Amino acid sequence: MKEKRKISIKDISKKLGISTTTISFIINGKAENRISKEVIKKVEDYIEKVGYKPNSTAQTLRTGKSKTIVFMAEDISDPFFSAIAKEMEEIAFENSYKIIYCSTENKKERALELLTLFKDRQVDAFIITPPEDFKNEMEELIKENKQVVMVFDRYYDDFEHNYVVLDNLDSSIRATRYLLNNGFQNVGFVGLKSDISTTQERLHGYQQVMAENAKKERSVLVSFDEVKTPTGKKKIYEFISRNPQIDSLLFATNSLAITGLKLLKEMGLKIPEDISVLTFDDRDLFELYSPPISVISQPVSHLANELIEGTLNLLEEDLKPNSRFQKVLKGKLVERTSSQRISENNAI
Amino acid sequence: MKEKRKISIKDISKKLGISTTTISFIINGKAENRISKEVIKKVEDYIEKVGYKPNSTAQTLRTGKSKTIVFMAEDISDPFFSAIAKEMEEIAFENSYKIIYCSTENKKERALELLTLFKDRQVDAFIITPPEDFKNEMEELIKENKQVVMVFDRYYDDFEHNYVVLDNLDSSIRATRYLLNNGFQNVGFVGLKSDISTTQERLHGYQQVMAENAKKERSVLVSFDEVKTPTGKKKIYEFISRNPQIDSLLFATNSLAITGLKLLKEMGLKIPEDISVLTFDDRDLFELYSPPISVISQPVSHLANELIEGTLNLLEEDLKPNSRFQKVLKGKLVERTSSQRISENNAI
DNA sequence: CTGAAAGCGCTTACAG
DNA sequence: CTGAAAGCGCTTACAG
To answer: What's the predicted TM-score (pTM) here?
Structure first.
């Protein structure tokens, strides 16, 4: 078991008196109908015995394929993205791919830096959650067609590309209808100030349903960097104060909801008696909250599987750069107490 | 900007009529006192102009250094580990190192698989959270001395190695004393059934303080795989039922606390009136919970910085394999409502 | 101060 | 069915 120096294909060649060409063919499964069974057996047995593993760096240098995928998430410490990352990791390893993670923080400059860093480092594929205002860069990257590029969590209308996303429009429509059906008359929307498709669709779904039902639309948009800050909280506070009619709040992201929940608590508003709450993206916090918070949950496993398997497939196909992989998955409405209608005379 | 094929050092050599040797020296900052200023300037200008970046795979093959660090976490989707990962990532990138993450799930077999996978792939350093019963493997890995090995979140007494950990004994002692000082007479401990130092110290700190104060020690140990299951919850339930005197619970991990919190809610026990609660490891959930849960929080940023900077330093030193990097950081007790003594006649 | 050449460990077109 | 040889893009001991 203890190896002085790593054994190489040349060592095997010398030891067995078989050319490196032949050995390489056998290792790479290209021996069929080319190499005699005896030789194959001999080589395989020896490899097995000494536990030889090809040097992947040399393979990369020679073939240009690194078996590496970069997952550029919005924020790898966000529970949603880290759950996705973990599921992908396992399948990638099974297929002998490595994944390198990084976070854009939803910042264009950071995403650009990261892209530059990895473009020069023989990476086979990118799975990217592009930040705000990054369309041109994405389009260029995809046009270059040097690596497989998979876009996650958002997508673009203007050009062809691979993507895996939630059906955010549909989810938002269902969420809003559900609140209306529960008897809430004045649903307010707390969203992100962003041109990303995800955010846009969540807003539009809400607007569409409100319009259909001849209800007044009321929304506040907070910028990404403000969500977890006092400024963000203040914006939501002012929104609620300005619109005292609001009896229900639809949050577009779980971070917004957390800020919102803190605020409602501070304001002494009771959920769902004074104001009902529904948010996108489940977290264990929401189930344990008092009262438990209703959510639209994303199918994390399914998303992760589509992402990594789609990427792996595109990597295999290799020569058909035009094949497109586009998946739109449905969200799941999880009803909990926070969005329930409490009858007026239900007090203790 | 648009490159047909990647430019190589040989291309530059031809173009400029300067040998690849000289160019390589210049690129690697080994030109000082060797190469004339004019040549250096000429090469640097040209590199700047064409945006040449050395092929890192070739460098790795030649030098044996890959500028890659593997972070083998217990579970990369756990908020604690993903927060650590994110902070390390940034510093690593700044130093042109890549990080590959993976999760052991606290399973020996999985850790072994992962180790085998990466040992054969020219990785410069491992940052590892070793699972249960993995001491021999860790000792062997460290003895081999092929890569820098940094142990995180736990450590071993029996052999020398680099590590970064929380002072779990001290934290547990302070936590238990704090509960006792708050007037809770019968503190129970909910821990993990594990031989990992972290778990052991948390238990021992509790036991030590209880003994010092001539209090009866009462604890239940749940195995890692059971924590999030009904079996785990049942174990805690039986523990509480068997020990009705318990007026305070110290949880050894945040997962245990979450299971415990669900249980206490189901049992209709009021926190802190019926039973007070304190747990290791903060999560945003705990602050928002009703009532807010007191915690011993780990200094995540500090831990991450020590980890990555320690690793990077060891990587630089390179030739002094015996230098040891050992950091033990203090936890912070964050008092919130869940551990407060409520005076008997405080009811509304 | 500078360069020719070997070699890291593979893969693959080519020849037989 | 099998092998000699070139080459991926670097770095570095050696020579001058």
So the answer is: 0.89
B58 touches strand C (CB under 7 A): yes
Q: What is the rounded distance in angstroms from the CA atom of residue B168 to the CA atom of residue B155?
A: 11
Q: Tell me, yes or no, whether A324 and A285 share the same domain.
A: no
pLDDT tens digit sequence for A246-302: 999 999 999 999 999 999 999 999 999 999 999 999 998 899 999 999 999 999 999
Å: B119 CA to C8 C1' = 18
3-state SS assignment for residue B68:
strand
Summarize pLDDT for B301-329 with one digit per residue, the tens. Answer: 999 999 999 999 998 875 555 568 999 99
Q: Do B180 and B286 reside in the same domain of the chain?
A: yes
B57 in A contact zone (CB under 8 Å): yes
**Based on the domain organization, do A209 and A270 belong to the same domain?**
yes
Statement to judge: residues A129 and A140 lie in one domain:
yes
pLDDT at B322: 56
Residues B115, B221, single domain; the answer is: no
The closest alpha carbon to A197, from A227, A162, A167, belongs to: A167
Residue A2 maps to a domain = no
**Closest alpha carbon within chain A to B87:** A77
CATH number at residue A86: 3.40.50.2300
Helix, strand or coil, per DSSP, at residue B61: helix
- Inform me whether the pLDDT recorded for B346 exceeds 50: no
CB A59 within 8 Å of CB A27: no
Residue A1 lies inside a defined structural domain of this protein: no
Retrieve residue B153's tokens. 């979140």
Residue with tokens 């807003």: A203
Both A294 and A172 in a single domain?
Answer: yes
If asked whether residues B77 and B220 sit together in one domain, one would say no
Residues spanned by the domain of A231:
168-298+333-339
Q: Closest chain B residue to A53 measured between Cα atoms?
A: B120
CB-based contacts of A315, cutoff 8 Å, min separation 6: A97, A124, A125, A148
In this structure, what DSSP letter does residue B344 have?
T
B160-B163-B167-B172 Cα dihedral, nearest 10 degrees = -90
Nearest to A167 by CA among A328, A2, A346, A348: A328
CA distance B180 to B214: 11
Least Cα separation, residue A33 to chain B (angstroms): 30
Is A148 in the same domain as A44?
Answer: no
